[in-house]
């Protein structure tokens, strides 16, 4: 129980990745507080893991800060909030609004939740902030603004880490590849990937069969939601106490670190 006695808050907790991370943190002993925009699935998951649920808009600075203040102690903060956006449209044909949408959405929610957690954790002299990116931040996608959005939050994580490190707070980023299990979960990714596949003249199932993520993974096993949850739980633990201002590559070797 590496996280026994720790208190964690997970924003976007009822989503595909969020729920896997909640379960991993709870399994390792943390008390987990779940937030999101839709209360019913939060309540179900909170009952499963023995945590609490709250309806919080992760783009609202006042709402996020008020929720964290109400919790008192927060040792771990994770933001898994996703944003539906246009995929499969070449940049030269993409509207400015569609290009900016994922950049603004991801940068906003990560900034709001991470800085709120950082203020509380710096005062306490301890804490871990986990920021979610994807492999899109490091590879050249043929379309949309998702790659720049992921690159932006990774840069933000490094900058925040340099500011709060002297106060005993770690900031780490996790960069998973596409996780096919998100489709079965009912995540917004299913509709988004379906539209992107259609734009390229195929179906979602054909896209899944061909591999949703970066091609050329060194490991044959499919990336799962639970595997990403396990990585986050490790990074949140004291076993990763020397890690900050870094991005953890969870691509099964499809995106080698150079």
TrEMBL record:
The keyword Oxidoreductase applies. GO terms for molecular function: oxidoreductase activity. Keywords: Oxidoreductase. Transmembrane segments: none annotated. Signal peptide: none annotated. InterPro entries: NAD(P)-bd_dom_sf (IPR036291), SDR_fam (IPR002347). The keyword Endoplasmic reticulum does not apply. It comes from the Bacteria. Gene3D superfamilies: NAD(P)-binding Rossmann-like Domain (3.40.50.720). SUPFAM superfamilies: NAD(P)-binding Rossmann-fold domains (SSF51735). Belongs to the short-chain dehydrogenases/reductases (SDR) family. This is 3-oxoacyl-ACP reductase. The lineage of its organism: Bacteria, Bacillati, Actinomycetota, Actinomycetes, Micrococcales.
């Amino acid at each position: 129980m590496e996280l026994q006695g720790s208190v964690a808050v997970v924003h976007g907790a009822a989503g595909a990745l969020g729920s896997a991370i909640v379960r991993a943190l709870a399994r390792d002993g943390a008390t987990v507080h779940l937030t999101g925009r839709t209360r019913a699935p939060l309540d179900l998951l909170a009952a499963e893991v023995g945590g609490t649920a709250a309806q919080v808009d992760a783009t609202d600075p006042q709402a996020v800060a008020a929720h964290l203040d109400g919790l008192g102690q927060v040792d771990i903060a994770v933001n898994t909030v996703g944003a539906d956006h246009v995929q499969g449209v070449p940049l030269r044909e993409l509207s400015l609004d569609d290009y900016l949408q994922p950049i603004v959405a991801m940068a906003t929610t990560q900034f709001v939740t991470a800085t709120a957690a950082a203020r509380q954790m710096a005062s306490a002299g301890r804490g871990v902030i986990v920021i979610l990116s994807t492999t899109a931040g490091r590879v050249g996608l043929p379309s949309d603004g998702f790659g720049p959005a992921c690159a932006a939050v990774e840069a933000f994580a490094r900058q925040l880490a340099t500011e709060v490190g002297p106060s005993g707070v770690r900031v780490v980023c996790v960069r998973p590849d596409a996780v096919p299990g998100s489709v079965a979960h009912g995540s917004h990714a299913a509709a988004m990937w379906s539209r992107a596949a259609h734009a390229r003249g195929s179906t979602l199932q054909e896209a899944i069969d061909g591999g949703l993520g970066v091609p050329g993974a060194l490991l044959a096993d499919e990336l799962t939601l639970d595997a990403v949850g396990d990585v986050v739980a490790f990074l949140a633990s004291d076993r990763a106490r020397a890690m900050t201002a870094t991005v953890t590559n969870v691509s099964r070797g499809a995106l080698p670190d150079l």
